[in-house]
Write a structure and sequence with these properties.
CATH class of the largest domain: Mainly Alpha
CATH superfamily of the largest domain: Winged helix-like DNA-binding domain superfamily/Winged helix DNA-binding domain
Strand order of the largest sheet: 5-6-4-7
Oligomer: single chain
Helix content: 55-70%
Number of domains: 2
Radius of gyration: 21 Å
Number of strands: 7
């Protein structure tokens, strides 16, 4: 079992709770419910309250007092963040990605003195599915992200110095070489295998355990839509571990959802009826 601190701590786990349970239920929850949720995840009350305060400081939630208790509500920016994340998490990996053989190539020279700009560029283009052939040469099989690429370059004031091309390789062998240079699929595949091993046979006895397991399931899965370039099927290795992991994620999510929501909603009702 991976411990909560290894998953990013109280704030990260509570953001998962907000996206999985609070967002679809109208965007509100009592402090005591969220503290109970943190307790089910192995987190102390102090850590939970501190995490709620940090999330509030980010402008993602706001509290309103009702007597001696506080009702938290998602703000507009909080709702937008969680809705975007939710769509990406649940849509990811659910379709076969076709490919016509075209590559989107970007040569983006960034001066050594602009290291922060280079790091930001790398992060944002990785999010769009780009891999690096060299520090200034990036490639993606998703030519449809050309407008987003140009928008990033323009925002970082790099568009004028960059070159963007659509290109085809000479052969399928060269496509394989490009993939091997631009992405570490062995490392990504190992991450999928580890995810499947950790979540294949969850120990669930009761609604509280179902709540805990589904939060861990979603929380551990959420990194893949942001790190996997979602390469076209024909560019992936045979028996790609990510395919089985997608199936496992959705089957386990379906199996756990009902009991997990019953547990969370029961705590909300207890406070409302008190």
């Amino acid at each position: 079992m991976v411990m909560p601190t290894e998953r990013g701590g109280a704030k990260a786990l509570l953001l998962t709770v907000l996206g999985e349970f609070v967002l679809p239920a109208g965007g509100q929850a009592w402090t005591s419910t969220l503290v109970a949720a943190a307790g089910a995840l192995g987190l102390g009350e102090k850590n939970a309250r501190q995490a709620l305060s940090r999330i509030s400081d980010q402008g993602l939630i706001e509290g309103s007092r009702h007597g001696r208790t506080v009702r938290w509500s998602l703000t507009g920016s909080g709702r937008e963040l969680l809705e975007t994340g939710t769509r990406r998490i649940y849509d990811f990996g659910t379709r076969e990605v076709d490919w016509d053989g075209q590559w989107l190539v970007a040569h983006c020279p960034v001066a050594e003195s602009q290291r922060s700009t280079r790091n930001q560029l790398r992060t944002e283009l990785s999010f769009l599915g780009f891999g690096e052939l060299s520090p200034s040469l990036l490639v993606s099989p998703h030519v449809d992200v050309d407008p987003q690429l140009r928008a990033v370059l323009e925002r970082l004031d790099l568009l004028a110095e960059s070159t963007v091309l659509w290109a085809n390789s000479v052969s399928g062998f060269e496509d394989e070489q490009l993939v091997a240079k631009a992405w570490d699929l062995d490392k990504l595949g190992r991450s999928y295998v580890e995810f499947s091993r950790n979540h294949r046979n969850p120990k669930v006895s009761g609604e509280r355990a179902a709540f805990r397991e589904i939060v861990y399931l979603v929380h551990d899965w959420r990194r893949f839509p942001f790190t996997d370039p979602e390469l076209p099927t024909k560019l992936l290795p045979a028996n790609w571990a990510g395919t089985k992991a997608v199936e496992l994620f959705h089957s386990q999510h379906t199996a756990l959802t009902g009991s997990a929501k019953d547990w969370f909603n029961s705590h909300e009702l207890q406070v409302a009826n008190a």
